Amino acid sequence: TQNIYILAIESSCDDTAASVMLNGKILSNVVAGQSIHEAYGGVVPELASRAHQQNIVPVVHQALKKANVDKKQLSAIAFTRGPGLMGSLLVGTSFAKSLAFGLDIPLIDVNHMQAHILAHFIDEDGFEKPPFPFLAMTISGGHTQIVKVNSYFDMDVIGETIDDAVGEAFDKSGKILGLGYPAGPEIDKRAKLGNPKAFKFTKPKVEGLNFSFSGLKTAILYFIQKETKANPDFIEQHLNDICASIQYTIIGILIDKLKLAVKETGITHIAIGGGVSANTGIRQALKNGEAKFGWTTYVPKFEFTTDNAAMIAIVGYLKYLEGDFAAQSVTASSRLKI
Ligand code: KG4
Ligand code: ZN
C-alpha cells in the first residue's frame, strides 16, 4: 500500500504548530507557544499574528526534521482554515497554500473544532477510538460545545455556550484571584490541595444543552470583593479552597449537561477534547461517570488536548483518503462552523 505523508499546520490562536503524520501515526508534533500574551492577561490578536509569521518557518522545519521526512516526500498539506483569529489563521493559510502550490501536491482545509474531536482517531498505543455515534464535549479557551458525532464528517452541535467558554471561566476567575494567564493549569494544581466544598457558587440556569459561564465569573468577583473587604488577606489564606470550589462548580456544570445529553440522545460513549480537557478534575469526573452512569469515556493523550497540529494532521489524512481537497482559492474563515 501507498505511504501517505501529511504535513499539517495550525495557527488559529496563539500557538504555531506543525506535525508530520504517516498513515495515521504521528511522526512529529511541534508547538511553539507565545509567552508574549502573558503580560496582557489574554491573547492580543495583532501580536499573535506577528509571532506566527516569525515562528512558522522554523516550526515547519523542525517538524520535518524530527519526523526525518523530506518535503519532497509529502503527499499533502493540511491547514486550519477556521474558526479562530483572522490574522493568525491568515498566516497558516497563506503558508500552506504556497507550500502546496510549490510542491504541486493537494491542499486540505481543516475545521479546528472538528480536529479537536477527531484527535481521538490518531493511531496511538493505549488509546481506544470511540465508535460512531458518540458524544464529544469540546472545552477550550474559545469554545464549549457538545457535539453528536455521527461519522468523521457528519457532526451536529447539540449544545454550546451562550457567552464565555469554559476556559475563559477558568482564566477570568484566575485573573480575579491574581493568578497568571492562562490560569486553568494553576487552578487545577491548587484545586488538588483544597476543599471543593469550602465555598458554594450557584450554577447558572440555562435551558437544554447550552452553557453559560459569564454569571459564574461575576458571582466569583462579588464574592471575592465582599470577602477581601472584611479580610484583606482572604485570597492568600484560602487560595487552594477557592480554586477547588471554582473547579468543582465548573465540573458540576459540565457533568450535568453531559448527563442531559446522554438522556436526550441515548448515546453513552463520550469523548472530550480541547485545552480544558487537560484538567485532572474533569478527567476524574468523567472516569467516575463510567461506574456511576454506565458511560464509556475517551480522554485524549495530553499533547493532543491543547492546540496542536497532530489533530489537524489526522483530519488531513482522513480527508486525503476521501480525496476531499481544497482549491488554491480557499480563504481563512474566522467563524467557520462544524
Ligand atoms: O485548546 P486550547 O489550548 O486553546 C484554545 O483553543 O482556546 O485551550 C486553552 C484553555 C485555556 O483557557 C486554559 O486555561 C485551559 O485551556 N486549560 C486548562 C487546563 N489546561 C489548559 N483549564 C483547566 N485545567 C487545566 N489543567
Ligand atoms: Zn483549540
UniProtKB/TrEMBL annotation:
Molecular function (GO) terms for this protein are: iron ion binding; tRNA N(6)-L-threonylcarbamoyladenine synthase activity
Q: What class of enzyme is it?
A: transferase
InterPro entries named among the record's database cross-references: ATPase_NBD, Gcp-like_dom, KAE1/TsaD, Peptidase_M22_CS, TsaD
Q: Where in the cell is it found?
A: Cytoplasm
Q: Name one GO cellular component term.
A: cytoplasm
Needed co-factor(s) = Fe(2+)
Q: From the UniProt record, list the reaction(s) this protein catalyses.
A: L-threonylcarbamoyladenylate + adenosine(37) in tRNA = N(6)-L-threonylcarbamoyladenosine(37) in tRNA + AMP + H(+)
Q: Which residues bind substrate?
A: 138-142, 171, 184, 188, 279
Q: Tell me the keywords, alphabetical order.
A: Acyltransferase, Cytoplasm, Iron, Metal-binding, Transferase, tRNA processing
Q: Which residues bind Fe cation?
A: 112, 116, 307
Keyword match Iron: yes
**EC numbers:** 2.3.1.234
Q: Where is the Gcp-like domain?
A: 25-313
Q: Which Pfam families match?
A: TsaD
Q: How is the cofactor bound?
A: Binds 1 Fe(2+) ion per subunit.
Single GO biological process annotation from the record: tRNA threonylcarbamoyladenosine modification
Q: Which family does it belong to?
A: Belongs to the KAE1 / TsaD family.
Which HAMAP family does this entry report, sorted A to Z?
TsaD
What is the stated purpose of this protein? Required for the formation of a threonylcarbamoyl group on adenosine at position 37 (t(6)A37) in tRNAs that read codons beginning with adenine. Is involved in the transfer of the threonylcarbamoyl moiety of threonylcarbamoyl-AMP (TC-AMP) to the N6 group of A37, together with TsaE and TsaB. TsaD likely plays a direct catalytic role in this reaction.
Q: What is this protein called?
A: tRNA N6-adenosine threonylcarbamoyltransferase
